[in-house]
Amino acid sequence: MRYLVAIFLFIAATVSAQEEGNDIYYDDFICPHDFGFFPHPIQCDAYYRCENGEPQFKLCGNGLAFDDRNDTKEDCNYLFAVDCEGRPELEPAISTTNCPNLYGIFPDPVNCAVFWSCWDGEASRYECTPGLAYDRVSRVCNWMDNIPECKAQRDAMQQNFACPAPGELAATGSFSRHPHPDDCRQYFVCLDGAAREYGCPIGTVFQIGNIDGLGQCSDPELVPGCEDYYGDLDLRVLRGLGLK
Ligand SMILES: *[C@@H]1O[C@H](CO)[C@@H](O)[C@H](O)[C@H]1NC(C)=O
């Protein structure tokens, strides 16, 4: 009888130790098939590699999660691309400069137009064209006024600019274009009194037209004050990279 009690206490202690540790490794994982890759029961960035029915615990890169849709594939993908339903736990985040996790795509906390693509903790910087900002939900560049997180930055940019009152510009009607006060490449389009910020294609700047409210993107050499906007940048290289 004393022997049985001792065994019972031992089992209880083992279970509670596992629960306290939180990083439950399920050493007792049973391979559902002899070979393949199978999700951890509760942790989305962990999985098991089974070989001859022997499980081996594995982790995805920090910020990635295990895609369990095909158990013949060892597939770790961006967190946003994986369905973690029912296995919500993750390893603690490991961060480096500009990367909250070692892997992922992250908005810049200060500049709404900038986002960082992180791979193994190495950050690559990307910037949307002027007037656009990185959309946290769809993860593409989108109009700044469609992105709630960018409201403060948008307001700051536009506070020095007000569209003419409707009807004020006889020549252009309800649609007009206006230069940005701080940036040669950017301009505002007013439609029925509402401003939206646009950017000229790379290599060009906004040229004020002969009539107030008109203008177009032009060669910097044609726009006094903006001749050196691109400095020594080799525009052919930038276009080749698709950084328009
Ligand atoms: C799983 O992946 C393997 C290897 O790429 C492929 O041959 C197989 O068709 C896939 N199965 C399903 C159900 O998609």
Automatic annotation (TrEMBL):
<keyword id="KW-1015">Disulfide bond</keyword>
<keyword id="KW-0147">Chitin-binding</keyword>
<dbReference type="Pfam" id="PF01607">
    <property type="entry name" value="CBM_14"/>
</dbReference>
<feature type="signal peptide">
    <location>
        <begin position="1"/>
        <end position="17"/>
    </location>
</feature>
<keyword id="KW-0325">Glycoprotein</keyword>
<keyword id="KW-0677">Repeat</keyword>
<feature type="domain" description="Chitin-binding type-2">
    <location>
        <begin position="160"/>
        <end position="228"/>
    </location>
</feature>
<dbReference type="GO" id="GO:0008061">
    <property type="term" value="F:chitin binding"/>
</dbReference>
<keyword id="KW-0732">Signal</keyword>
<dbReference type="InterPro" id="IPR036508">
    <property type="entry name" value="Chitin-bd_dom_sf"/>
</dbReference>
<feature type="domain" description="Chitin-binding type-2">
    <location>
        <begin position="28"/>
        <end position="86"/>
    </location>
</feature>
<dbReference type="InterPro" id="IPR051940">
    <property type="entry name" value="Chitin_bind-dev_reg"/>
</dbReference>
<feature type="domain" description="Chitin-binding type-2">
    <location>
        <begin position="96"/>
        <end position="152"/>
    </location>
</feature>
<dbReference type="GO" id="GO:0005576">
    <property type="term" value="C:extracellular region"/>
</dbReference>
<protein>
    <recommendedName>
        <fullName>Chitin-binding type-2 domain-containing protein</fullName>
    </recommendedName>
</protein>
<dbReference type="InterPro" id="IPR002557">
    <property type="entry name" value="Chitin-bd_dom"/>
</dbReference>
